[in-house]
Amino acid sequence: MIPLVKRMLRCDRCNRGSVFITMLISYIAILLFPVAIGLFLYSHVEEAMEDQANRSSLAMLEQLRLSMDASIKEVDQLSQQITLNPKMDSLLNSDMSNESSYRYIEFIADYLNRYRGFSGRFIEDYYVYFKGTDTILKPGVRTDSRTFYTSYYSYKDMSYDTWRSNLLEANHNRDYLPAKTLLRDGGLPITASLEREPIKVLTYVQSLIPIRGMSDIMGSLVVLIDEKQVKDMIRQIESANRSHIYIISADQKVLTGTTDQVPFGREVFQRMNGASGFFPHQEYGADLMVSYTSSSMIGWKYISVTPRDIYMQKVNAVKLTAMWLFALYLVVGLIASYGMAYRNYRPVKQMLKFIVKDQPVPASARTNEYEFIQESLESVLDEQKHLQGQLQHQAPIMRANFLTRLIRGLVDHSEDIRHSLDFMNIRFVSDSFAVILIQVDDAEAFAQDQSERQWALIRFIISNIGAELIHEHHIGYCVDLDRDRLVVLLNINKQRQQEAVAHMTHVANTLKQVMEERFQIAITLALSNVHEGLERIGNAYLETLAAMEYKIIKGRSSVIFFREINRKDQHYYYPLETEMQLMNFVRSGDVDNTRKLLDSLYEINFTSNPITPGLAQCLFFNLASTHLKLVNATGSKHGESADGRFDAVAAILDCATAEELHTLMKELFVSQTQMMQTGRSDHNEQLLQEITAFIDSHYTDPNLGLNMISEKFSRTPQYISTFFKKTSGQNMTDYIAKRRIDQAKQLISKQEMTIAQIAQKVGYTNDLVLIRVFKKMEGITPGKYRDTC
């Protein structure tokens, strides 16, 4: 093969130009690249096959976990329905009277028999034990514990005393016991013989504790889970890859599996420290591959153990086929490389003639045509394409982020906001705004898998239909707030302000109708009042949040107007989302947004739709609770303000009006915010010094950039960029470029190195980048700067 390549290179046609040689070498390199990959795959085929088998096993284990979690959820729901039953507390404290007996029978008839109809095949049976009266209730049965154990359900190799002490009277909290044989010899005569045969079950036990006397165990709920249903799920994986499957509890007990014993010691469990994974293991001379996945709901581990020799049979056949394909590929590829290089060289010569036209061809062009073409076009197109690409890539993200902050009321409404709107191509036709909040209630009929891709499609459909309806008369911008929540900022047309409310109603009802009838997607819409001014958009958004809270009253798939909700004598507005937002503003030291949010809460609860005095006191006590949480988080004494001057709770009780309470709350939260802001300033200054020191010592590294610095200081690139801009007043890329250009100026003045050498010395990959950055910052090229030195 090597002599053939040499003869090709000596061919007269290769003398046509260096590009031809470059093309030929490139095609050969491209030819050899897949060969190298093939050789790599050839040498690592065994590992690849193992990895594929392991991931397949892990995927099936994950499917088993999802199925088991769904079944275990049935057990939890049954447990909650029985243990939280209103009559359970009285039954746990009952005596042996006739009235208690009647309540037992009533409990069986009204509840246990009813729950029986909701339990699936996964649950074999369940019963409730009452310790005070030694009574066991199950659907259709009431008896004492000994009669129940001897006549209904008993465990093989377990005595009555052991069963009662370890199962019924011991403390259990959602405990699952390993599979054991359950004897069912005590069935009624009318029961079929199949239902009296022994079965293996997993036992779920939940101790019952009455509300009064939290330390006393007064009974137990026992749920019997048919192991056959579990093994039916396991058998699908076992037959697919001929592996052994085991289900291990959180305390490393084998609940069930294809065999009774796990084929490795307990030390292997220490390697299963993640949510899922796989690793090789050798036990008694046998090579095994262990795959596992964990359930975050109950802490179970699902383990698959597969012998390695099962899937190694395919490897040898793949190796033999690959060798023949490699040989054929090399012969055909060398011939094709020479032909394609010669054919593709001709357009390069024609392009060169087009660039120089009637002028003589420069010597550099005859030596390397590509380099000449690149030098001719790069200076004009490179930076323009780069800037356009950056703007096109970042514009949608910047626009969505800005609209989100504008709707939430987090934008500083200064004179520059109009320039920001123009820059992001956001056009408003008036100063009248309203907000529509859209919540997706049910989309299962449209997208049953509920994947992120389907949710993105749902939000896209809602956004497009909503925009089409709004743009008939007004201007609207739609923003995704969450997976199932969107918000529309509506800018009212000046000529149609009188019909704005009617148009909003039409848009909401039409959008709801189209989504339900055409796409089977149920949505709830909350509409704010019309507000004047950009600074009032945040208040409109808070109104939609308040209106959306009334979905619990009006039901799903409804249209709720803030002006129509009657909150008087019902409740005040202070949702968890607002509380978390307030706490985040305080922790970040954001005094302005803390004041704005408290003012918005006061306006909604006391100006737009006043609440009762009793609810007003509850609202401010809730705000005081939020303040105390922040005080505890900062290490201040409980019940004091951030400066420790007075008791916050006592001060609230001394206030006589809501306005006084509002003023007090603002003082407390602003004081706490200022304390957090003071505590953060020293840390910010130290972090800025560390970043600048790192840049000063590494600016000669070509890889120095935002990603490298963020990895060094364990922060996200977005955080480092925003932090440096905010604290130093300049972009990080400008700072790095200035540091490099300052050093380059010193080296240029010494007249000892070429521009290319200086570029590499200060951290640039080539002299073209240095020339472009130098001219941008200094106004002249490095060569002209050297002439002035």
Characterise this structure.
Strand 14 (475-482) and strand 15 form a beta hairpin. The longest helix is centred in the middle third of the chain and has 44 residues, at 313-356. It is globular, with a radius of gyration of 37 Å. The protein has a seven-stranded antiparallel β-sheet with strand order 3-2-1-7-6-5-4, with helices on both faces. Strands 13, 14, 15, 16, 17 and 18 form a six-stranded mixed β-sheet that branches. Strands 9-8-12-11-10 form a five-stranded antiparallel β-sheet, with helices on one face. With 789 residues, the chain is α+β, with helices and mostly antiparallel strands.
Provide a count of the helices. 27
* Fraction in beta strands: 5-15%
Distance between termini?
Answer: 56 Å
Shape label: globular
Uncertain parts = 1-16, 186-192, 637-646
Largest sheet: 7 strands, antiparallel
The strand line-up of the biggest sheet is: 3-2-1-7-6-5-4
How would you state the average pLDDT, rounded?
79
Structural class: alpha+beta
Secondary structure: helix percent? 55-70%
